[in-house]
């Protein structure tokens, strides 16, 4: 303890900073929730319950998954807007990479340094319980944000300046389509039923399906004591999809709801899964007895085995 058959298979057949939209962020948190060890879960719940700004009596990480977006729109929260992304000044589709010195401001206003900063605030928590809760809420959100490829790219302001169409509506941009439209088409509207259904699909793929052999690679850097390096690796991983798919072709003016979406959907679901397992392993160490790279069985599997 540092602090004291899938939906994708079916689909294959057939100026924003809010990565993944509400449902996507909640699903990252809900996937993580299934893999939290009991000691870590108790610690996380205690911090959120003590939060003087909480909106319900016993909030979970799912309940606070979109807090950072709402906070950034408030007068006192505008400082955090630049923490949601890092603008990689690379050259897609020919070269994709993230360079911390080149791409993060001198003030450290980027998602890589934000994850490192708020992780450190949980390793050495403030006596102010609200500050500790804020650090946790930021991490829950940013570990989701960093898996959205366009939150790791500078070209056309992370795709905000690339006009596209969606279901015949030409008043869209590439970034917003990745953030919300494709997630909604993949998993449905932001409600509890769709949240639980998508979580179940992803968790099953992690436990028994196509994601299971990929978990060691996804978790090859998950030590909070090395947070800056790990966050940079996560950003680099997400940024690689800019060249291999997101901006592989010039999408200016494209209708994205057809073949482009069908290629993007598996990437989106996999990135949501990555965010969930990384968040779980991170929190298991910050609040419990977890180890880097170790993803425990989800609680449903534990019940079955016991």
From TrEMBL:
Keywords from the UniProt entry: Disulfide bond, Endonuclease, Glycoprotein, Hydrolase, Metal-binding, Nuclease, Signal
Stretch forming the signal peptide: 1-19
Any Gene Ontology biological process: DNA catabolic process
Pfam family, one: S1-P1_nuclease
GO molecular function, one term: nucleic acid binding
Database matches in InterPro entries: PLipase_C/P1_nuclease_dom_sf, S1/P1nuclease
Family statement: Belongs to the nuclease type I family.
Cross-referenced PANTHER family: ENDONUCLEASE 4
Record protein name field: S1/P1 nuclease
Annotated organism of origin: Tulasnella calospora MUT 4182
